[in-house]
From TrEMBL, chains A, B:
Positions of the Thiamine pyrophosphate enzyme N-terminal TPP-binding domain: 7-116
Name listed for the protein in its UniProt record: Pyruvate decarboxylase
Annotated ranges, domain Thiamine pyrophosphate enzyme TPP-binding: 387-511
Originating species: Emericella nidulans (strain FGSC A4 / ATCC 38163 / CBS 112.46 / NRRL 194 / M139) (Aspergillus nidulans)
Entry EC no(s): 4.1.1.1
Amino acid sequence: METTTTTLAEYLFKRLHQLGVDSIFGLPGDYNLQLLDYVAPSRLHWIGSCNELNAGYAADAYSRVKGIGALVTTFGVGELSAVNAIAGAYAERAPVVHVVGTPVRESQESRALIHHTFNDGEYKRFDRMQEHITVAQAILTDHRSAPAEIDRVLQQCLLHSRPVRIAIPLDMVSLRVPKMALEHKICVPLPCRQPQLEDKALKAILDRMYSAKKPVILVDGEVRSAKIMEEVEHIVKSTEWPTFTSGFGKSLVDETLPNVYGVFTPRYKDFIDSSDLVLCFGPHFSNTNSYLYQTVPQQHKTIFFHPTSVQIDSEIIRDLPANHFLPQLIGHLEVAKLNRYTCNFDHPSSVAPPDVQASDLVTQAGGFWHRMSSFFQEGDIILAETGTASYGANEFRLPPKTRLFKAVTWLSIGYMLPATLGASLAQHDLIARSEYHDFLEARSILFIGDGSFQLTAQELATIIHRKLNVIIFLINNDGYTIERAIHGRNQGYNNITPWRYLKGLEFFGAPTEGEYAAHTWQVRTWGDLEKVLTDERMIKGKGVRMVEVFMDRLDVPPPLDRILEMQIERENGVQ
Amino acid sequence: METTTTTLAEYLFKRLHQLGVDSIFGLPGDYNLQLLDYVAPSRLHWIGSCNELNAGYAADAYSRVKGIGALVTTFGVGELSAVNAIAGAYAERAPVVHVVGTPVRESQESRALIHHTFNDGEYKRFDRMQEHITVAQAILTDHRSAPAEIDRVLQQCLLHSRPVRIAIPLDMVSLRVPKMALEHKICVPLPCRQPQLEDKALKAILDRMYSAKKPVILVDGEVRSAKIMEEVEHIVKSTEWPTFTSGFGKSLVDETLPNVYGVFTPRYKDFIDSSDLVLCFGPHFSNTNSYLYQTVPQQHKTIFFHPTSVQIDSEIIRDLPANHFLPQLIGHLEVAKLNRYTCNFDHPSSVAPPDVQASDLVTQAGGFWHRMSSFFQEGDIILAETGTASYGANEFRLPPKTRLFKAVTWLSIGYMLPATLGASLAQHDLIARSEYHDFLEARSILFIGDGSFQLTAQELATIIHRKLNVIIFLINNDGYTIERAIHGRNQGYNNITPWRYLKGLEFFGAPTEGEYAAHTWQVRTWGDLEKVLTDERMIKGKGVRMVEVFMDRLDVPPPLDRILEMQIERENGVQ
């Protein structure tokens, strides 16, 4: 009989492992120590993080690469430190499982006055707070229903690609539960055919596609969470229609394809407004992902493919999950009936960056982001933190099989450094499973401003000690430059304390010699940059490499340059 | 007419300044930039913090010294990062004002899809989440009621000594409001005399006091938030009764008084149980503040003085605010009627630490905490982070006019380093107002483990660049030693990454020469420690001084030593 049961903790962790969690983030705490005893036996790698916010950010990034991510925190103090990360996962659709170790049920039921509470016997506050930022919650109290509760919330996590929370009292960790259900991996509930709806939608879409003279395709970021990246790339390739991405969608379709023109910036607006059909996949139109709504396509000529619905003109046809419906559309599509046309834009890959001299200072106008593109390789994950980096990233020319992380809507500064930990570990774990294309190694490359770096800098230690293949370009522009562009360009509140950034590697314990020796550089001119990018230690080094790139306090990429001009005009009384 | 109004932002910040906020913590963000324009004109010092959690911790500590503290964050991303700190302020009664800059009302009302939201038009989530961790909330939407709303929540903050939240839409910041109310500082509503209740309570208490043969006094931590420190010290002095404190109460009564015997540890339990009356002031009986409830005095012989009630036996007489009732008790008390007696305990100040040799390694058993006491001076604030430091701090012998911060109930590791920033700034601001006793300078001295240090390490930068008089003793015991004592003493999840801690000062930008040059030391033996404590650079240095003290991974003070033994017994099958 023994073999028909397992512990509740193992049930949970094995479920996570089945779904693709190989590494799990978090910190120990008084109410999760016994739970953590089951991590390694369940074949998960424990990644002790420096704090819970960082663990949450790392799990978020891990999930965006690997399809699921998880962290473990402790009741109250631990879980509350992570809520900003969990909220960001909700906003931008990252499937994160937040496991919280809670006090034994006897304490909770007797309203005992214990630490990590408000000393008032009320234990439910943290549950209530996190209902607002998770798509499903399980508060485990009974071993009989616990496995099904775990499965329920994990399904919701996958279905919506949004975070869930599982609270486990310390005294339930080692309770026995049936292990039979573990024989089958959890699946997202399958959609049923909805013939009437599907026929209606297919006819309307195909009619519009066949009659379009000047159609375009717009790929936005929710194609990742809707799991339709392959289908969308198929449509982009087979139609050969001019294709753009949003910032969120960038890297989700191969932008070396001849008909993919990079990010839909306002300079393309007239062209897209003059089209007669827009196929818009995975739309996510926050102000920051749409150049203040300038690049939202006109509704009357657009077909929007949402995660579970299709919108044609003003009509929303629901109950058509995109990853179920798009294969049908592809199956019915007769490409011979489509109009092909050429548009006059140069492909971004054929546009040269501005001319500069080796002795010139590195600047935005000199094409920093554009120039960095030559450094990128297939398999790279490139991360561009909120700020000038995130806007600059729209200028990147990305090789195939790369992924770009950039700030989209949540825009919590500090996210990208722990996200680099998470993304790099996801690469590492995929390579270990032979599931990362055919690569045997791969880099994660972070671009981050000095201001953002300060919020979560300590997670660099975890990157170092996990021996991850990470390169960091720290843009030192002496403060919160993006805020200076928006308001207060000369105000003290946009200043930060000056650090000796490159000393961080030594502080956080990086080896100074040997295979994983860390290397650092400072860059002020284009000549400096060229030397760094061709340095053997950069190219062949295995330890963390960190480059401090100095830029002016007010050197910003579009559209921040225009926002800064407007601020100056306001100050000068020009409205 | 112009002079009868001011801006809403100035109204808020001037109110805070009137109440004692001289320095305000926080970070700029898109929805608070214009609000921050009013900080300096309102005579507040802006303390840009490295992240919002740290800002919250700093504001909490500032408030515990100065009677009120404040931080400013931005909508969503900023405020959620601070919630753990706000919750801690609630749990341990710190009067913190959390000001959040929110999007313009037009965005909120039109449900615009903007950044720092979930891109779904729902703006109320963060309000709802924080109702659970604040004692009052103001969501400003109308300039006519805004000043009264601000005043209402500030009163609640002071009345309960607990955090409040004020949300200000960006487009309300510069609206005009009447400034007349600013002529009078906000007061906590005064209590009315309740003659019947007061007479009953006074009679019962005085009867018990006059008849007691062997009474004792117990001072717990809520005497600070109840604002009865002076009254309690008066009673301790005038009764001359044997007095103990809890860990939370330590330093809140002058422990050099001959009848104050330090922390009520289980070794005094028999004595206190044998007493016939306990006067217990500001009780706060969480498990961690009461040696797992061992030191909760017996109810039938104890009079509990709560913030707004008195409990005598099982009867609670409410509506007797302690800071109103205790002066009455003192006024009626005839000390000549009290029994005096001597107890046989040595005063802690007369107990010598264990004998050690200069070449011996520094250990808990060798009396590290006790020995450190000779280093303390009047005016010091001493901070002992959760972990071995917090338990060890019970051994400190504190001079008069010192304050001890130690983990009590919330126990969020990472708190104490930013708290050191807040406490040191509060000292600085009090000295500037000539309100810090008669001191012209004062030190803040932090004891923190390596594990806790990693969570919030970057706030050291703010301490450095504000030129604060801070000394840090970092206990390097190679991981989460307190967790190892509880469970998993050999488990990997209690490990941390090894840093070169003393390099942090250089990394964070500390001067290497000049008046504020930082100094560092490493200590392994008692001889090393002695050298450091007598080093001129330590004694006369003005920059941050940091000492790395190495201890064994399992070297813990009581009662953690017993908890560790129990773990080992469990592993060996001894229950």
